Amino acid sequence: MSEAVAVPVPTAPRPREGDLRVVVLGKGAIGAPVREALASGHVQGAQLTAIVDRRGATRPDGEPIEGDTWLGEADLVVEAAGQPAVASLGTSVIAAGVDLLVLSIGALGDEDLHDRLSAGPGRLYLSTGAIGGLDVLRAVADAGTLQYARIETTKKPRTLIQDWMSQGQRAELLDAVSRVEVLRGSPQHIAGAFPASANVAMAVAAAAGSRSLVEAAVFADPTCTVTTHEITVESTTGTYRFQIANRPSPENPATSGLVPLSVLRAIRDLAGRKETVL
Ligand SMILES: NC(=O)c1ccc[n+]([C@@H]2O[C@H](COP(=O)([O-])OP(=O)(O)OC[C@H]3O[C@@H](n4cnc5c(N)ncnc54)[C@H](O)[C@@H]3O)[C@@H](O)[C@H]2O)c1
């Protein structure tokens, strides 16, 4: 008889005193890898306490959690569940004194919701998500030298189809043979029109501390193999251009593979990693 080989059963790391207790909203292209990194102990100083999706909340080992009691075991809630989830859950997170890291930043186009989420006592953080360069934008905005900022996003046509589009608009988009402009306007208009694809427009507005100085546009390009964001910042101190070319997440073509990495970087910073580049 052959000898039985003991297979080690992986166990979740034990909570450590003083760890940042993190709850993740959403189990999709962003939430799943963030949950995995946290549950496997890859984020020093942070501990996953619950995962919440449309069906309810569970502990990292899958045990169901009653109602919204997960909120009492959180220091930080990471929202990766869509703009409607920010509206339905965000205010109670902030009101409970729990910090909220928002991915679906387009939800803040609703000024009333934005005010409620900014009222504390929990702190509102916005993820840099799929883009970068926001440190420069914030620096010139804080100094009062920002003249304008623009973000132009180019995606594959099929990822841009929306319920509000007429049959004609959809056909035009899907039949395009080269890059076409789909919509241009204020950041809140663009992020509202493309809720899963253009949250970055409101991220730029938040970094600029202004909606009126920011213009956003969305393009469809059937030939593109990556999602691109071109950010231009004009300031009295200079002109700054950032070009981001993101490979899509294999789980969700509307989301870039960079986004969960940005979230994990933010959690590491909030959990107190030393020697951070700010
Ligand atoms: N800021 C950025 O750069 C950026 C980039 C990509 C996506 N996003 C935002 O992040 C969101 C999530 O992206 P994704 O690719 O992971 O989406 P996804 O569709 O892959 O997953 C969404 C998850 O959220 C869950 N969910 C939906 N409604 C919920 C609710 N009310 N409460 C709890 N869970 C709920 C779903 O069950 C699913 O698990 C997008 O909708 C978008 O708004 C932001």
TrEMBL record:
**Its job:** Specifically catalyzes the NAD or NADP-dependent dehydrogenation of L-aspartate to iminoaspartate.
The question of whether DNA damage is a record keyword is answered with: no
Which residue windows are transmembrane per the record?
none
Which GO terms of the molecular function aspect are on file?
aspartate dehydrogenase [NAD(P)+] activity; NAD binding; NADP binding; oxidoreductase activity, acting on the CH-NH2 group of donors, NAD or NADP as acceptor
Keyword Oxidoreductase listed? The answer is: yes
Could you tell me what this protein is called?
L-aspartate dehydrogenase
Q: In which pathway does it act?
A: Cofactor biosynthesis; NAD(+) biosynthesis; iminoaspartate from L-aspartate (dehydrogenase route): step 1/1
UniProt keywords (A-Z) are: NAD, NADP, Oxidoreductase, Pyridine nucleotide biosynthesis
UniProt superkingdom = Bacteria
What is the similarity comment for this entry?
A: Belongs to the L-aspartate dehydrogenase family.
Q: Report the EC code(s) recorded for this entry.
A: 1.4.1.21
Another remark in the UniProt entry says: The iminoaspartate product is unstable in aqueous solution and can decompose to oxaloacetate and ammonia.
